[in-house]
Amino acid sequence: MKQTMIRLLALALFAGATACSDDDAITPPDAVRHTFTGMFPRAVDVEWERRASYLVAEFDDAGSDTEAWFDNAGKWYMTETESHYTALPEAVRTAFETGDYASWRIDDVERILHHVRGTLHALDVERGAQEYELYYTDDGTLWQAVPDIDGLRDELLP
């Protein structure tokens, strides 16, 4: 009876450990790792996953939660870094506070460096069940307001 209990306990521990494993974690190709380490030499706690056709590194960069997007050949597409409303350029804060979404609650703020568009500031806003991604340029221009459906930032992908 004691042996049966030990076996059941071992089986339960094994099942629990495998259920918690990160099946989405991947090892990127050498070209991707080379580009990544060149761009982010201070990155720690790096985890890779695939989103659509991109390899995305999630990591800590100097205390900021950051994601960097690459293709399989190692070409960089964009970097998203968690930010704070107070860190936004004054022009972006003014544009938001005087714009159509001023009464909406800000859920997240990110600074995005994009391979084509340059620097964008993303505000995730919500009002009731509605959620939008607002993209502002450094000068406070609202570049795009997009319903937040899947969190993939499809509007920024090539």
Helical percent range?
Answer: 10-25%
Cα Rg? 20 Å
* Shape field: elongated
How far apart are the first and last residues' alpha carbons, in Å? 61 Å
Structural class: alpha+beta
| CATH topology term | Nuclear Transport Factor 2, Chain: A
**What would CATH call the class?**
Alpha Beta
Write down how many β-strands occur, each being a DSSP E stretch of 2 or more residues.
8
Strand order of the largest sheet: 1-2-3-4-5-6-7-8
How many helical stretches? 3
Instruction: Report the biggest beta sheet as strand number plus sense, adding barrel if it closes.
Output: 8 strands, antiparallel
Which regions have little confidence, pLDDT < 50, spanning 5+ residues? 1-22
* Overall pLDDT: 86
CATH architecture type = Roll
Order of helices and strands: HHEEEEHEEEE
Please give the domain count: 1
Key traits:
8 strands, eight-stranded antiparallel beta sheet, 3 helices, 23% helix, 158 residues, elongated, single chain, Nuclear Transport Factor 2, Chain: A, alpha+beta, disordered N terminus
